[in-house]
From TrEMBL:
Gene3D superfamilies: Immunoglobulins, YVTN repeat-like/Quinoprotein amine dehydrogenase. This is IPT/TIG domain-containing protein. It comes from the Bacteria. SUPFAM superfamilies: E set domains (SSF81296), Nitrous oxide reductase, N-terminal domain (SSF50974). Keywords: Signal. It comes from Catenulispora yoronensis. The keyword Acetylation does not apply.
Length: 560
């Protein structure tokens, strides 16, 4: 499972020698500061050891993964019991981490090893190691799970983002960005990657389709963006600007900063809640968490927490905060904005991650939206959060079969129905069953294969004498009763014989002798004897048969 960036193998020896002295000096100085419980802020400013922003939510596993910078380990915290359920040894100086969208893996960036440790969340063991660029600092997954992005240091003034194919765990490209990428966030549709560059005022925008930088966002009042998160609707990105003690509001449509929100001193991490209404900002110098109302872009609460809060994560009604010099993770109740639980973890906890939201499925379209009541129609179901579907139903009846093509598409075969009419197509996953909406309606129709002799089907034109009785015959796949006609059906409409355009309004197409619709069980045939009018002479008429399943069937006539 271990793989290497193609430059890693050839440059490993020379790079190790060249970087050893600087690396050792920076880290030993940093660690002395941490162990002395002095300014970890200075440590973070010098080395870029910043916390990963992770917008957590429900998942099959509710565990929170805590990177312990000084402990070279990850603490696995059960948020239900408030206890550490596992401690996982990883590489040197871990501080960036993220959990895959399906919740199966936790990836931990090891700044001292130039690697990513891959943790199996089912067993909480390291199952693989991925070599990445020099001095990696942060990692984020695309919501579709296809890519992971690792920010790292290339050379003074230049940073890079390694793009990793999560199917093969290989680095497929390295995108140059600004100086010291400290935070990465991906838009909900996985199309754009936003990178906060700690040294300077720059935020880079990467097109995920082309793996190229397409925009650079900066402002003098937004110095040292240290972390970044994106609103659930993708409309805004928010950065925690460490040396400006504020939060940038970025309009993702224009990639411009539209506002700056003052918060506490030294904001180092930021997270947004599930509905996008609140931001939670960890202020490292102030030992507080600021709560921002995104409707007014103002701080509505300031919560005292432990010493040097370096990372913040929000999941439903709980906010998690890691305290670097306190070696703890604290739980905050979002209803009261108070700390309710303190959990001891490893040495210098500096980042938090949790699986993203396991949202219930949503059906947004069904194509085709109708089919015969005998079933067998292959239907494409579109929507969101369809991955992991355990069932597809057409009304109280399961699909004959179905295949999950992607998170946004399922192919299913419609089952037979007991009667015609509209039913809801629903999808069930471990997270729930899709709500019924107008977009998920599928209509079962009669098995109508066309009119029978002596009537020819369109585009043929039937020639008849005005005033003659015309037997309109058809089959519906068996005896469906005599109430199969819609109200007011059938009708006749005069049309232009050359163009086929209506020149009159529909009028009742009466039956001969008022006989109405008849059914012959021997042949399975319905017959409606249309008593045409003598006034039809020299005209063209369209006979329209509308059934109570909502379908309409027509035949063209020219009368002499």
């Amino acid at each position: 499972m271990t793989c290497m960036n193609m430059n890693t193998a050839t440059n490993a020896s020379s790079r190790t020698a060249a970087n050893a002295a600087g690396r050792s000096t920076r880290r030993s100085r940093a660690l002395r500061r941490v162990l002395a419980a002095t300014s970890v802020t200075a440590l973070l400013s010098l080395t870029g050891l910043t916390g990963l922003t992770a917008a957590g939510a429900s998942a099959a596993t509710r565990n929170v993964y805590v990177s312990n910078l000084r402990g070279n380990s990850v603490s696995v915290v059960d948020p239900i019991t408030g206890t550490v359920v596992a401690t996982v040894p990883v590489g040197s100086f871990p501080f960036g981490d993220a959990v895959s969208p399906d919740g199966s893996q936790a990836w931990v960036v090891n700044n001292g090893s130039d690697t990513v440790s891959v943790i199996d969340t089912a067993t909480n063991t390291v199952t693989g190691t991925i070599s990445v660029g020099r001095l990696p600092q942060t990692v984020a997954f695309s919501p579709n799970g296809a890519r992971a992005y690792v920010g790292h240091f290339i050379s003074p003034g230049v940073g890079g983002v390694d793009v990793i194919d999560t199917g093969t765990d290989t680095v497929i490209t390295d995108i140059p960005v600004g100086n010291q990428p400290a935070g990465i966030a991906v838009t909900p549709d996985s199309s754009r990657v936003y990178v906060a560059d700690f040294v300077g005022t720059q935020v880079d925008v990467i097109d995920a389709a082309t793996n190229t930088r397409i925009a650079t966002i900066s402002a003098p009042g937004a110095r040292t963006p240290n972390a970044i998160t994106i609103s659930p609707d993708g409309a805004h990105a928010y950065t925690a600007n460490f040396n400006s003690s504020n939060v940038s509001v970025i309009d993702t449509a224009t990639n411009t900063i539209t506002g700056l929100i003052p918060v506490g001193s030294g904001p180092g991490s930021i997270a947004v809640n599930a509905d996008g209404s609140r931001l939670y900002v960890a202020n490292e110098n102030a030992n507080t968490v600021s709560v921002v109302d995104t409707a007014t872009f103002s701080v509505i609460a300031t919560i005292p927490v432990g010493s040097v809060p370096t990372a913040v994560l929000v999941d439903g009604g709980t906010v998690y905060v890691s305290n670097a010099t306190g070696n703890t993770v604290q739980f905050i109740d979002t209803a009261t904005n108070t700390v309710t639980t303190t959990v001891p973890v490893g040495s210098v906890p500096i980042a938090l991650a949790q699986a993203p939201a396991a949202l219930p499925p949503v059906v947004t379209g069904v194509s085709p939206d109708h089919g015969p009541e005998t079933g067998g129609t292959v239907v494409t179901i579109t929507g969101t959060h369809l991955t992991g579907a355990t069932g597809v139903s057409f009304g109280a009846t399961p699909a004959v079969s179905f295949t999950v093509d992607s998170d946004t598409r399922i192919t299913a075969m419609a089952p037979a129905a007991a009667s015609v009419g509209a039913v809801a197509v629903t999808v069930t996953t471990p997270s729930g069953t899709s709500a019924i909406t107008a977009a998920d309606q599928y209509t079962y129709t009669y098995v109508f294969a066309g009119f029978l002799s002596p009537v020819a089907n369109v585009p043929a034109v039937n020639h008849s004498h005005a005033g003659q009785a015309v037997p309109i015959k058809f089959r519906l796949g068996g005896d469906q009763g005599l109430n199969v006609l819609a109200a007011g059906s059938p009708t006749a409409t005069r049309v232009n014989c050359a163009t086929g355009m209506p020149v009159g309004v529909p009028t009742p197409a009466d039956s001969a002798g008022g006989s109405g619709l008849q059914y012959d069980p021997g042949t399975g045939t319905y017959t409606y004897v249309w008593k045409t009018l003598k006034a039809y002479a020299g005209t063209c008429q369209v006979f329209t048969l509308t059934l109570n399943d909502g379908t309409t069937h027509v035949a063209d006539f020219q009368f002499s």
